Amino acid sequence: MAHLAKADVREQQLVLADKLANMRAIARDDAKYGEDLWQRFRSQSVDNCSF
Q: pTM score > 0.70 for this model?
């Protein structure tokens, strides 16, 4: 995320909008599924790692 300090304002806005959308989706799913929500993030598969 450090590269965003030098990024174009429109790129910064896009990244922040994406982060906000992700947070909202997680909040909705948390309200619906509770702690079971986090099971989808607990994978040992290397295929799930995109970094």
A: no
**CA 30 to chain CA centroid, nearest Å:** 14
For residue range 25-45, list pLDDT tens digits in order.
999 999 999 999 888 877 665
Which distant-in-sequence residues (6+ apart) come within 8 Å of 15 by Cβ?
1, 4, 7
What is the C-alpha end-to-end distance of the chain, expressed in Å?
A: 13
- Indicate the SS3 state at residue 8: coil
- Quick check: 37 and 30 in contact, CB under 8 A? yes
Helix (H) or strand (E) segment spanning residue 51: none
Region class of 43: left (phi > 0), else alpha (psi between -120 and 50), else beta? beta
